[in-house]
Fold these 2 entries.
Entry 1:
Amino acid sequence: MQKTVRKNTQKTVSFSKDSTNIFFHILTKCNLSCRHCYIDPDQHGSNTLKIETITAWLDRFSDIFTRANIIFLGGEPTLHPDLAEAIKYAKAKNAKSITVDTNGYLFHDFLNAVDPSDVDFLSFSLDGATKETNDAIRGKGSYETCVQGIKAAVSKGFAASLIYTVNSENKDELGLMAPLLSEWGIKRFFIQVIGLRGNSARKKSAQKKSARKNSVCEKSLYEKTGSFSEKNLQLTKDEWRAIVPPAAENIADHGIIVTYPKVFLDIDESFECAGNVADNYFIFPNGRVYRCPVCEDYPIHGLMFSENRIVETPKINETDLFKLEIPEGCVINKIVQPENLAYKKDGTPEYRIACCMLKQEITPRFNE
Ligand code: SF4
Ligand code: SF4
């Protein structure tokens, strides 16, 4: 009998020390130049990690590996010739889950290099329901290639998810995604917010106006358009609340699990910094290890790899900042992106900025 959705379940995904998330950027090189990309070779390196280094760094997490979600990303991770070997290594060590974030180009015959049982999710990125909108953000031809990649992956038995970074140029197409996701066989849909990550790297790149070898990402598009830094792609609080939760609910009605960041907290909602209460590692090929993705644009990483061991960095670093309590919520947001805040006449904040890792999840409920 065909499944019909009766009611969706909403929950805020609270932080947990019982689960570890390892976001492993194994290279920063990429074939695309997406406008919102947070990768900055000055901060993250431009090297491609050798497989011996990848496995040695994974070994540093041996004692917690069975509760670790490993996310391989880049740059474009399938450009790495040894990605399949890295996945198999993590699988053999019994990682709790393995995800590969990809732009869909699936280099090195990726779908034939790994077995669907080796990977929990292939997570594709698309930033529009139409090729016109997506390609204006991610580059010409990227929509068609990504959709072909999704279809090929699903037909081979891979579980596919999709990441959609909402901005002022694609916000109106979020509502068009539901039937497409169903048609393509997407199991999970992640909505991301633009600006709370990578904003500063983008501005810096634009200001420098100098081409970087292998740089990748937003820099080259800026060189082409010359206008990106002047355009504010971020949604306002009212736009976010009007567009994202209803679209998420609609997509969940199609039987797809949807996750999106809370972003804005009412002033009476409780705030927690994941840097204090969760176990997340954002690893870059230059050896930097951050606990907070919003810090990634700056050399304030709390940890780093040195001779294949994780060591703490000297003060002051992100770990010291996590401890500061302010009425606006996320302290790093206030430092690097104060334009996200608004104040009442008496000087108190109108709302708080949530930790960027605080998510709302909608799970479809089926009636057989
Ligand atoms: S955001 Fe775009 S340019 Fe940046 S790494 Fe991902 S696919 Fe490449
Ligand atoms: S985004 Fe803000 S609240 Fe979340 S870990 Fe970073 S500093 Fe803490």
Entry 2:
Amino acid sequence: MSFVEYSEFIQEGDVVIIFLGRESMMPIKVQSGAQTQTRYGVIRHSSDLIGQKFGSKITCSKGGWVYVLHPTPELWTVNLPHRTQILYTTDIANITLMLDLKPGSVVCESGTGSGSLSHAILRTIAPTGHLHTVEFHAQRAEKAIQEFKEHKVSHLVTVRNQDVCKDGFGITHVADAVFLDIPSPWEAITHAKRALKHKGGRLCSFSPCIEQVQRTCEALLEHGFEEICTLEVLLRVHEVRTVTLPLPDFGPEDGSSDLGLEDASNSTNSSVNCKTATPPREIAGHTGYLSFATKPRN
Ligand SMILES: C[S@@+](CC[C@H](N)C(=O)[O-])C[C@H]1O[C@@H](n2cnc3c(N)ncnc32)[C@H](O)[C@@H]1O
């Protein structure tokens, strides 16, 4: 198993996502002889997991069942151990697109934090790209190195335990893209410019506060960056539900099939059941602003 390549069968040492329900999942490391307790009973790694196909439905000791899923960056984001605030898929999708990441891209990132974004970047740039990620908190850097090894992606990533604002990214004029998620990104713009390839290259900075955005954009302008733009990505998940509506009386003719009604057999004389999608009354909270820029091409 690797986070950048799909395997069919579960092996010792793999990370598996135990899916108990949409809102209830847990990552486990498969070890022969080990057991994992769930609300549906025990999962015995040797007999229930090793050799099974990823995606299988397995029965726990109390008779309940769970799915055993292959890990992906999206599943990791909602299951990873939090060491910091993390980026979620809504922002990650935009970052990946707007930084023009693809297989073979060389990318710089700081800070590594809990590695949520790092895993998504690694899947996108594999099999020939490289991620240089900088984290000044020693234990977080160490934990990230360990996770990348366990997830079989360490050949694609270099973790540096240093202050990006003082010491930069450790590479010069090779990166296709730079991503910043640190409290004072404006202090890292000189280093970002040096890490980016001579001409072109994209930069993105994530900040929760507009004052941080202002200072970062000023620094980007001072350093000659172009196409500077800031956006906020808000997700609106529409809820699909069945509602009962009173049936209008159009006279003696039966017009229910012309009205797009779900199923005439669900209808009574006076009401009808149909599916409707409603937008959320409240939009999920602000995460942060994404500021993008391009290094001049000439
Ligand atoms: C919000 S977290 C990053 C989360 C990450 N984007 C993710 O998705 O998991 C910010 C990280 O940046 C690190 N950091 C802050 N300032 C830094 C600096 N100057 N140099 C290197 N790392 C820094 C912090 O230690 C923290 O781990």
